[in-house]
Amino acid sequence: MPATSRKRRSTSRSKSNRSGMDAIALLKKDHQTVRRLLKKLASSAETRRSEAVTLLRQIENELKVHTQIEEEIFYPAFRDAVEGKKEEHIYYEALEEHHVVDLVMPEIESTGRNSEEFPAKAKVLKDLVEHHAEEEESEMFPKARKAMGAAELRELGLRLQKRKEELMGEFTGRIQKMFQPTRNNKRRAA
After folding, report:
1. How many domains, in total, are found in the chain?
2. Is residue 187 part of a domain?
3. Range of 132's domain?
C-alpha cells in the first residue's frame, strides 16, 4: 500500500508540473500578448482616443508585470546559470532595453492621440519591444534552456506565474481604488 500511495503522489506532482508552463513558455506567451496589443495600437489609425488610452494602459500593465518578473526572477537565474562574457552581455543588454521602454511609455502616453507624433511613437515602442522579445527568444532563451534544464525551468515557471498573479492583483487593486468614489463625491452625487 505505501508504494501505491507513493506512486499516486508522484503522479499528481508531475501532472501539476506539466500543467504549468516552464519559464520560457510563460515569457514567450507574454511576448505574444504584448505584440498583439502593440500591433492593434500601431495599425489602428481610426482608434478613438478612449480606445487608444485603454490599449496603452493594457500595454503598460503587461510590460510592467512582465519586466518585473523577468528582472526579479528570470534574469538573475539566467545570470547564475550561464558563464561567460557573451551571456553576461545579453543579461545587461536586456536590462537596458527594459529601461528604454520605461522611458518611451510616458512619452507616448503624453502625446495627443490625434497628433502626427502619436503613430510614430507607437511604432517606435512596437519596434523596441519586438526587438527585445526577438533577442530574448533567439539568444537568451536557448542559452537558458541549455544551462538550466527542464526541471529548473518548470520551477522558475511556477515562481514567475505566482509573482505575475500577485503583481496583476496589485495593479487591479490600484486601478479599482482610482475609480472608487470618495466620500465627498458621494455627498455631491446625493
Report:
1. 1
2. no
3. 22-177
User: Rounded to whole angstroms, how far apart are CA atoms 181 and 147?
Assistant: 51
Global pTM value:
0.78
Reduced 3-state DSSP string for the chain: CHHHHHHHHHHHHHHHHHHCCCHHHHHHHHHHHHHHHHHHHHHCCCCCHHHHHHHHHHHHHHHHHHHHHHHHHHHHHHHHHCCCHHHHHHHHHHHHHHHHHHHHHHHHHHCCCCCCHHHHHHHHHHHHHHHHHHHHHHHHHHHHHHHHHHHHHHHHHHHHHHHHHHHHHHHHHHHHHHHCCCHHHHHHHC
Residue range 24-39, pLDDT digits in tens: 999 999 999 999 999 8
Cα angle 136, 128, 79 (rounded to 5 degrees) comes to 30
Query: Which amino acid, 118?
Result: F
